[in-house]
Amino acid sequence: MALEDKISALPDDILLTILSLLTLKQAVATSILSPRWRYLWTSLHTLNFRYEEILHRNDDDTDNEWGCKIYEADYMERFMQVVNQVLRSHKAPKLHEFGIHYPLDASRGDLIDIWVAFAIAFKVSKLELNFSTNQVPIWVCSFKNYSFPLYFFDKTKRIEPYLVQLDRVFSVCTPPLNVDNGFECLRELILKSVDLTDEQFETILSSCTFLEFLHVLYSSRLVNVKHAVPHMKLKSLEMYRCFQLKKLEIFAPNLVSFKYLGPKINISVKDAKQLVHACMRSNWETWEFSRTNSLGLPNMQRGDFVFGQFAAYLPQIEHLVMDASSFGRTKVLDNGPLLYNLRHLSLSSLNFADGPFGILGCYEMVASFVKVSPFLHRLELHFELYPLQDPELRRIAVSPHNYLKEVLVSGFSGNKLVVDLIMVVFDFAIELEKIEISTAYLGDPSKCTISLKPDDDFLVRKSIEQLHGRMPAKAQLYILDDGL
Questions:
Q1: Rounded CA gap, 220 and 235, in Å?
Q2: Domain boundaries, the chain
Q3: Rounded to an integer, what distance in angstroms lies between the CA atom of residue 395 and that of residue 425?
Q4: By CB count within 10 A, which of 35, 37, 120, 290 is most buried?
């Protein structure tokens, strides 16, 4: 007796929820199950095109070989064909998510424009254009970031010409579009290796009045970003590796999270009374600016980058991310208020002994923050690159801390200086419950750093055993690497 297919009898909305848990490729593959499933995937509300899921990778391809192949013309054409075929078949009246994850550049701009217009026409809530990759082959020397058309997000300019192209190229009939409504549906915008001008950045915030999350990575044309009118819905702003940026001013009264990684620039976050998550990471610079930048503004010195520009917000911050080069042996923590709200502190440094970026500076930061953060719960220490020397760590007096329960150490190479620093933490974190150790560097908030593994596994294992013997009684040790 044939088994009854009870799943296919479920309503469309339930089946679409099930399909949304699959990758797009897997969802399309369900079309062969039965006539009931044949066109069901065309009503998906989420379309995320990821090259890792769409293109075939040989089992023996190394990461480097695969990273080179995706820049080849036949792979790129195959990816674009899949996107176009799916858009032609799409039937849902609205999109929740639309994402392109492939290192496409400006040469494919005309097609990308149409894809974005498609997403806006179907009132997308989350739009992600990820044209970034960690591995760019040396021979890809002409890669130029895609840029939006100048007035693409300007509500006073119409995007109907792009919708006409949708109908002509894809035979896609878009729903009736009130452009204002299309932009007002956008809640999350993620742009990686997409070039924006200062004017376009301002236009996006002005047009997308319900935008809650904005993430920008590797945008090379931003210089002087300013949004002076209060954006009442924006809750999270992330600006990573925009290396030409000289000044950033944002007025978002309901901003909860601000994350920045890049040059030490002038940053003004105005009237953010809800701000509780702050990441202020600078580049690893070998010298400190002493001149003005191209806008005639003085570049930030080390201690001013965080403590000067964000001093007013420090008492309300719950999660703070910064690096050793931004500490500058400042006395602001000693002379300022206690940080009663700080629960989670993440500090990064190079695995060097001396200099403004080194472990000794990181140690001073740890000691200073622990003294003024009585309710600190989690401490993360991230060390990039390998150590060159291991001088003795001169201890700083730190009183026992009763609330610090979790410690994460990444970029652990087993060298004596790092081991000594961790043992210092053991001495004052008397209620420590968990310590996590990873040889991979996990301190890049933009997740663009290719982590290097230490060559000496024996030293790593030996140092971990040494730490295990010195841990507080209640603490558990967790190794995050396979094979250690």
A1: 24
A2: 318-484
A3: 11
A4: 120
| pTM for this model (two decimals) | 0.90
Tell me the CA distances in angstroms from 44 to 91, 117, 163, 173, one per residue in order.
8, 18, 20, 16
* Residues 6+ positions from 381 with CB-CB distance below 8 Å: 347, 349, 362, 366, 407, 408, 409, 410, 421, 422
Tokens of 68: 């080179």
CA-to-CA distance for 321 and 307, rounded, in angstroms? 12
Quote the CA–CA distance of 333 and 368 in Å, as a whole number.
7
Tokens of 170: 């894809």
> CB 20: neighbour CB atoms within 10 A?
14
What 3 state SS string does 200-245 have? HHHHHHHHCCCCCEEEEECCCCCCEEEECCCCCCCCEEEEECCCCC
Average pLDDT over residues 49-61: 89
**The two structure tokens encoding residue 461:** 């294992």
Radius of gyration of the chain (CA): 25
Query: How many other β-carbons are positioned within 10 Å of the β-carbon of residue 422?
Result: 20
Shortest CA distance to 295 belongs to which of 250, 227, 245?
A: 245
Q: How far apart are CA 273 and CA 111, in angstroms?
A: 42
Q: Residue 95 is encoded by which pair of tokens?
A: 């999109």
The rounded distance, in Å, linking the Cα atoms of 152 and 133 is 25
For residue range 125-180, list pLDDT tens digits in order.
999 999 987 655 444 556 789 998 877 777 666 677 777 777 676 766 666 655 55
Residue written as token pair 């403004």: 356
